[in-house]
Amino acid sequence: MKHYVNSLAGHFGHILAERERELRGALEAGKDNEVANGLAADGEVQDFKDLAERESQSDMAALDAARLAEELAGVIAARERLRDGTFGQCTACGKPIDLRRLEVLPAASFCVACQSAGEETAGAHPQSHRT
Ligand SMILES: [Zn+2]
C-alpha cells in the first residue's frame, strides 16, 4: 500500500486549501451565521457542537452548518498536520494512512482501523476535540 510522502505536500495542500475555501463560503452563505461566526480567523473552532445543539431545536439549517463547521475543523487540522509534518499519519496510532484513503478523504486523521474502531465504540469521533 502506498503512503503519503512529503513530495505530495503541495498536492494535498492545494486540495485542502480549496476545500477550506468552499466550506467557509458555504458557512457564510448560510442564513444562520452564528455557527460560522464561531470560527475565528485564526482557525480556532469554538463550541460549534454546543451551538448546533442549541440551534437544532429551532432550525435544522444549523445542523447543516454544524456539519460544515465540523468538516472545516477537520480540514484546518489536516492543514496544520501538513505544516508540522505529521500529515498522512493516523493521529490515534501514528501509523501511515493509506494514500488511497487520503486521496478520497484528504482531511482524514485516522487510519481505517482506528476510524472503524472509533465508529463502533463512540458512534462519533474517536478523538475528542481538544482546546
Ligand atoms: Zn490508526
- What is the overall pLDDT average? 81
Name of the CATH superfamily: DksA, coiled-coil domain
**What would the principal axes of the Cα set say about the shape?**
globular
Structural class: mainly alpha
Largest sheet entry: none
- Beta-strand share of residues: under 5%
The CATH architecture would be Up-down Bundle
Defining key terms:
about 130 residues, mainly alpha, Four Helix Bundle (Hemerythrin (Met), subunit A), 6 helices, about 0% strand, binds zinc ion
Quick take:
The chain has 131 residues and is mainly alpha-helical. The chain has 6 helices and no strands. It is globular.
How would you describe this protein?
This protein is mainly alpha-helical. It has a single domain (6-121), classed as Four Helix Bundle (Hemerythrin (Met), subunit A). It is 56% helix and 0% strand. It contains six helices and no strands. Helix 1 runs antiparallel to helix 4 and helix 3 runs antiparallel to helix 4 (61-84). The longest helix is centred in the middle third of the chain and has 24 residues, at 61-84. The chain is globular and about 45 Å long. The termini are far apart. The mean pLDDT is 81. The structure holds zinc ion. Residues 90, 92-93, 95, 110-111, 113-114 line the site of zinc ion (ZN).
